[in-house]
Design a protein that fits this description.
The chain is α/β, with parallel strands linked by helices. It has helices at about 20-30, 40-45, 50-60, 70-85, 95-105, 120-125, 150-160, 175-185, 215-220; strands at about 5-10, 15, 90, 110-115, 135-140, 165-170, 185-190, 205-210.
């Protein structure tokens, strides 16, 4: 069996700018409970651990108390709102479409490893015409664990018949860098994403790139 080269990507903040529509869903949820909005920049700083954790941060910043019964209702409302907003105000970052097309043309396997839950991942990809672009998509609820646990990238590499020496992971956050480190995988990072308000250079990726074009060059 021949080994394929593989380019794996984080989704939010790496391929697609989704912060505005996530912020819309968060603030609609808060409004349902009579709570004040949060700023979009706050939402950007919370992206990376999955939408449940993100909504929890917003809720804690506005609500005076929390209990299990009410939290379940909060998440029901958030899921409802994000189902409506997913794909409405997001956009691909520069050169993403061109690089993905170039990688496919070069027979490089391409995949996503994200902490976003699959129902939202699928909706965002569909909104941007990317549903059938990737060889594999690992979402935050695909496996029992999620990033920075390396299981997602390990499974993705195995499923596309690649290996650590022929694969590269590209992300925008410390979580992505740590995930790749935990797997023993090379990791590049872009500086324009959502790294909890910190410069991604501080996480010391193997390479910092301004946009995704060097990824295509790496595999040519």
């Amino acid at each position: 069996m021949s080994i394929r080269s593989a380019a794996l990507f984080d989704l939010d903040g790496t391929l697609i700018d989704t912060a505005s529509e996530i912020s819309d869903a968060v603030n609609r949820t808060l409004a349902d409970f009579g709570l004040a909005e949060v700023r979009e920049q706050q939402v950007r700083d919370w992206i990376g651990h999955g939408t449940g954790w993100l909504m929890q941060q917003a809720w804690k910043s506005r609500a005076s108390k929390e209990n299990a019964e009410e939290w379940a209702t909060v998440m029901e409302r958030f899921v409802h709102h994000y189902h409506e907003t997913a794909g409405t105000r997001s956009h691909l970052f520069p050169y993403v479409a061109e690089v993905l097309a170039g990688l496919k043309g070069a027979d490089v396997a391409i995949g996503i490893v994200t902490n976003k839950e699959s129902r939202f991942t699928d909706r965002v990809l569909s909104a941007h015409g990317l549903s059938h672009t990737f060889d594999i998509v690992i979402s935050g609820d695909t496996l029992p664990t999620k990033k920075p646990d390396p299981a997602g990238v390990v499974k993705a590499i195995a499923d596309v018949r690649s290996d650590l020496q022929h694969a590269l992971f590209v992300g925008d956050s410390q979580i992505d860098v740590q995930t790749a480190r935990n797997a023993g995988l090379a990791v590049w990072a872009v500086p324009y994403g959502y790294n909890h308000g910190e410069p991604i250079s501080a996480s010391q990726p193997d390479r910092l790139i301004d946009d995704l074009r060097p990824v295509l060059g790496h595999f040519q």
